[in-house]
Prior knowledge:
By secondary structure, the protein is of the alpha/beta class. The chain folds into two domains: 3-55 and 339-349, Nicotinate-nucleotide-dimethylbenzimidazole phosphoribosyltransferase (CobT), small domain (5,6-Dimethylbenzimidazole Phosphoribosyltransferase, Chain: A, domain 1), CATH 1.10.1610; 60-330, 3-Layer(aba) Sandwich (Rossmann fold), CATH 3.40.50. Helix content is 46%, strand content 9%. The chain is built from 14 helices and six strands. It has a six-stranded parallel β-sheet with strand order 3-2-1-4-5-6, sandwiched between helices. Strand 5 (263-265), helix 11 (268-280) and strand 6 (288-290) form a beta-alpha-beta unit. Helix 6 runs parallel beside helix 11 (268-280). The longest helix has 20 residues, at 147-166. The radius of gyration is 22 Å and the shape is globular. The N and C termini lie far apart (76 Å).
Amino acid sequence: MNLDDFSDLIARADGGTRRDAEERRERLVVPPGALGRLDELGEWLSAAQGEVKVRPVEHPKAVLFAGDHGVAALGVSGRAAGTAHELVRAVLEGASPVAVLARSMGVPVRVVDAGLDCDPELLPAEVTRHRVRRGSGRIDIENALTAEEAEAAVRLGMAIADEEADSGTDLVVLGDLSVGGTTPASTLIAALCGTDASVVTGRGGAGIDDLAWMRKCAAVRDALRRARPVLGDQLELLAAVGGADLAATTGFLLQASVRRLPVILDGVVGAACALVAQRAAFRAPDWWLAGQVSGEPAQAKALDRMALNPLLDHGVHVGEGTGALLALPLVRAAAAFAAELPERPDPTTPDAAGDGGGA
């Protein structure tokens, strides 16, 4: 499997439609610029849908890839290693931020077990069970995945994207449920951006103290030494310093772009996977939005590299897709404005000029 093959499969969003949408926006009753970035969002949706008059976003879904990371055993996370299944249960029992928000918006949530390190009976029945392996390797000293596992994880993500596109999902809010996941994410971004560990290492969604941050920096530094020799092959890179959930997320992003399924990204894990996907297929980011600034320095670096401008900056770093889901009402509002605001009357027509009748 070669991820570079996606470059031939992913088309750009329809630039001609976007230009037509921009021209139509100039004719609306609300002056251009008055709606701020909602104009830009409406034009992005036009291009993604291939229609000048945008369709409403009626069937969004939050898709969360779940996994544990061996590097968490080094004390680089605010949560104990091997406890991502607790995050999964909280989401599916309605007791997490993303679950509360999704419920209030009427958005279904799908959780995919790509690499959790727990017994299956600890998981709620609603979990999509396609585990590639039980936890990913400790990336500072060993590969996260074998080559076969990395390919299986990417194919898992692709299959989930196909299932969502085939079921009528018209926009995906993409998130992650992981313990230790921001460490491989930061490593991937540092490797692809050619920067040092200290520049990209943040404190994660759970928050860590200074000592844990130093341990995390050291882990990213050691993992970077293992990442640099395989930078020429995205699949090898995911195997070396990624993880089952990150590889699956990358496959999802690539196949969603093939299927013309728009995606809102959340935090640093999604940004890292998007950067890997962009490296494989430069047109893929046409189909993505950056939902929010998470505060992770690696996320900011990745989004800048992909020229993705986040919609929100509210300091939300809880993860799980929460920040991306907060951006969904803006996208829906942009769709409604683009579709429903009337155009100004044409002053050259008789009715508009006051010559259309009367005594």
